[in-house]
Specification:
The complex is a heterodimer of chains A (181) and B (428). Chain A is mostly helical. Chain A contains 6 helices and no strands. In chain B, 29% of the residues lie in helices and 34% in strands. Chain B is elongated and about 135 Å long. The chains are: A mainly alpha (181), B alpha/beta (428).
Chain lengths: 181, 428
Amino acid sequence: MRPADPEHLAELSSTEATGKRLVALCIGLAAASLAAGYVLGGRPVEALLILLLGALWLGGEWRGWSRVDAVGLVGCTGVAAAGMWLDLAPGWMLAGVVWALSAWDLSTFTRWVASVQTAEKARVLLRQHLRRLLIVDVVGALLAGAALAIRLRLGLALMLLLGLVLFLGVSRAIRFLRRES
Amino acid sequence: MRRILILGGLIYLLLLGGLASLDRRLLVLAIPLLVYLGTALPFGPGELRLRAVRSLSPDRTIEGPPVSVRLSITNEGSALEQLLVRDLVPRRLGVEDGKPAAAIALGPGETFEMEYRLRSERGTYDWEHIQVTAGDLFGLSQQTTLVPAPGHLTVLPRVVSLRRLAIRPLRTRGHAGPVPARQGGPGTDFYGVREYQLGDPQRWINWRASARHDAALFTNEFEQERIANVGLILDARARNEVRAASDSLFEHAVRATASLADTFLRDGNRVGLLVFGRYVDWTFPGYGKVQREQILRALARAEPGESQIFDSLEYLPTRLFPAGSQIVMVSPVSRDDLPVLLRLRARGYQLLVIRPDPVAFEMQGLASEPSVELAARILRAERGLVARRLRQAGVQVVEWPVDRMLDQMIHASLGRVPPWFRLVGVES
């Protein structure tokens, strides 16, 4: 490996550029999905604000602002939750969250992959990561779609119990991952 | 903020919102996030078991050409999905080519090699560790650790070839060399005339002197040439350091000292080095290539520094230098230093002072304003006075604007000997 090879550097930056393009695509799709849900629900002003949020996220990514990805994810999830609460089409909201999650993930991954020293390896790692992310997105979307479609009648006690179990499970998962750090 | 906290916070908020409003759709929104979190869980970095080997090529060099650093990292533990390796480059060394950081995924037993090049700045550098950050599949949890990867680099100062310096110490050593020994004997330069002794070569007989005496023959005597003790002193006191842009006056002084050491050793002299600054770094006198290497290594680690004790030349350990030897000092020399130098001269040391010019050096980076010009004139006048006092005491002084060649300045200053110099006993 020759560090100074301009061809090698060009290939590396092309992988990074691909990653950035994918981030931009995901941000665009997240904003578009959420905005579509709001427009279809008769709320064009809010849709414009959502597009503005998407544009801000995109601009922040472009200019390399730190933590803009976190703000974007939180913003999009908040907008989706508000959309659900306002009885807007849940499919669009769900799609918005999935795309926002993908953009958030790819934003970090693209920064990491920029430090890979060989262009070939960078391409392989990017492809591998995209495959995994796609699977996670599809599984998440399918499960969420199924959860929207299936209706179960649960008593308050059982629902509280399930909520508590979910809470504890998530707490344990987070604690485990933080301990690993 | 850590990614896990952002994701966890969002999941909690959606769960709380869903349970509080009894709205399952909010819970549904949390599902993709939960799947994402759940997928990352089994792929955590676990215990990091990495072995790193560093190789520097070369590990001893002269400032200028780049140094290549190669790191080989082997994963002796479980698979690592996202690994970021960052080498902790010493601050003074700039990266010229490549990156001292690399991202990689390493399977069990796999080895990864990275390479980058550094600008070689004079100094000695030690590497202890590399920093390794390992993350899970999605970088939610990260573990950072230091992996030992020792390495040592010595960058010696650049040596400029100088012509032979004519030095005349009071005492010389026993072996033949290039320094006039102030003693009659075999040599090339005429020294005097003495009465003929049995065994003197016939061609040495001074016929003109012998013709004036009826019963005696006289022989020409030549000056013996021997090697000398040379003590180099590098002034590393922080108050003499001047920085302009990215250049440093001290670096020029170090290169000058290295060049002088090289010249004196090449002539066969016995050379020692004293670096006088934050502390005293003494390189015992010696001869030849080994001594050259030792002096260059001492100069490589020389740094300008402050010390209350060594702020004045008063505590210069002059007893390290043999009596009557040649002392060569590389220092801007201020007015406060005069008494010590004059005392050295009075004790019989032959003194040569190379004075890097801090005024000319600093003026290069300053705007040409009347106040600056006036300040420079005052400083130059003061430097001139110091130089005059030194010369009056028989100290040889070389004023050196560092943008000029040292060799040129030395020979311009020492080449011609003013007549009044001879009166105080300095011949060249």
